[in-house]
Write a structure and sequence with these properties.
Helix 3 packs across helix 4 and helix 5 packs antiparallel against helix 7. The protein has a single domain, classed as Orthogonal Bundle (434 Repressor (Amino-terminal Domain)), CATH 1.10.260.40. About 65% of the residues lie in helices and about 0% in strands. The chain is built from 7 helices and no strands.
């Protein structure tokens, strides 16, 4: 009986169930991914991750590390602040149709940015290894 009353009350309001105030990181990630026209599998491939990782993030069972959040924001075209707090630059309006050529160029640009971020992370790791090797006494 209570469920029917709640459903009726919810049906009478014009407010959307998804608002910045009640969205989770997983909700925003899924929304941004959908607005970018990507499937979970495609996002996982572009990030170099397993599909199960994206599933856990979107289902709020796990959270991405800071470096992955930065990659996600670039790949999905949203600000890091929006992903974390729902404030700032979120997904663009979905009612604007994009031509196939424009969508391909945007997709490729996002992929290049993701690749650059991944390589920048790799350079940082190599620099740390080099520093530690330079500090070791020669044998």
């Amino acid at each position: 009986m209570i469920d029917q009353e709640m459903t009726a009350d919810m049906a009478e309001t014009d407010e959307p169930w998804f608002t910045p105030e009640n969205s989770t990181l997983g909700d925003r990630l899924a929304g941004a991914r959908e607005a970018a026209g990507m499937t979970r599998a495609e996002l996982a491939r572009r990030m170099g991750l397993k599909l199960s990782t994206i599933d856990k993030w979107e289902d709020d069972l796990a959270e991405p590390r800071a470096n992955r959040l930065q990659m996600l924001s670039g790949l999905l075209g949203v600000s890091l602040t929006w992903l974390l707090t729902a404030e700032g630059d979120g997904p663009g309006p979905s009612d604007e149709p994009l031509g196939d050529d424009l969508r391909k160029v945007l997709s490729e640009m996002r992929q290049v940015r993701t690749d650059l971020l991944r390589e920048a992370e790799r350079i940082g790791q190599l620099e740390k290894r080099l520093r530690s090797l330079l500090k070791e006494p020669a044998a």
